[in-house]
Write a structure and sequence with these properties.
- There is one protein chain.
- The protein is an alpha+beta fold.
- The chain has one domain: Pseudouridine synthase (2-Layer Sandwich).
- A hairpin with a 3-residue loop joins β1 and β2.
């Protein structure tokens, strides 16, 4: 657990989540990062009682990268509001097939979550029950068979990046749910929460955190090479 902590102080703890890890408990009953971190802190800091830890935002189980947890209720309430107000800047990396697409593009769609299949339906115009979803992508690297996109999110919808890129004709590598031709060996997808920028909710310091990509994936390693 210790090697996954990329930032920690008295109020916050930021984890570089691995593919397959749950950010919080769900119906699978698998152990979540929330529980694992609580246990880790309890042992490391010798805490006799319960450890307070709150999840500020989520990323999908097959995705890797940065997740913020709050160690105090004050930090949790302030950060949750900041996320709602879009005051936490999130930058993602995604690996997609080598298609002919604009070098940079702002995508605006309308997404509707389908609870039955846990998937987002994508519409190109205002649709009842669908929420406006906006992101901007830029191609930042070209590999032999893939493109590396850097994505800035303006909204935070369910499966937003996965659904919008798929609708644009470039599903994320490994993302069978949204049209990728084959799965990844680890069952994950090549979507990584790369960077977070925000003002610390208590100290007011400007925080910028970048997470290394998964090193067990040769494509990801190639993306990070100069």
């Amino acid at each position: 657990m210790e090697e996954q902590i990329v930032y920690e102080d008295n109020h916050l703890l930021v984890i570089n989540k691995k593919v397959g890890q749950l950010v919080q408990g769900d119906k699978t009953g698998d152990e979540s990062l929330l529980d694992s971190i609580k246990n880790f802190i309890k042992i490391r800091d010798g805490k006799p009682g319960n450890v307070f830890l709150g999840l500020v935002h989520r990323i999908d189980r097959p995705t890797s990268g940065l997740v913020i947890y709050a160690k105090t209720s004050k930090a949790l309430s302030r950060l949750t509001q900041m996320v709602k107000n879009r005051e936490v800047k999130k930058t993602y990396w995604a690996v997609v097939g080598k298609e002919i697409i604009p070098q940079s593009q702002r995508l605006i769609h309308y997404l509707k979550k389908n609870e039955k299949n846990n998937k987002a339906s994508v519409f190109t115009k205002v649709t009842e029950g669908a929420k406006e979803s906006i992101l901007t992508y830029t191609v930042i690297k070209t590999l032999d068979n893939y493109l590396l996109l850097e994505i800035d999110l303006e909204t935070g919808r369910h499966h937003q990046i996965r659904a919008q890129l798929s609708k644009t004709g470039v599903p994320i590598k490994g993302d069978l749910k949204y049209g990728a031709p084959r799965s990844n060996p680890d069952g994950g997808i090549n979507l990584h929460a790369r960077k977070l920028e925000f003002v610390h909710p208590v100290t007011k310091e400007n925080i910028v955190i970048t997470a290394p990509v998964p090193q067990n994936d040769a494509i990801w390693r190639a993306c990070e090479e100069n």
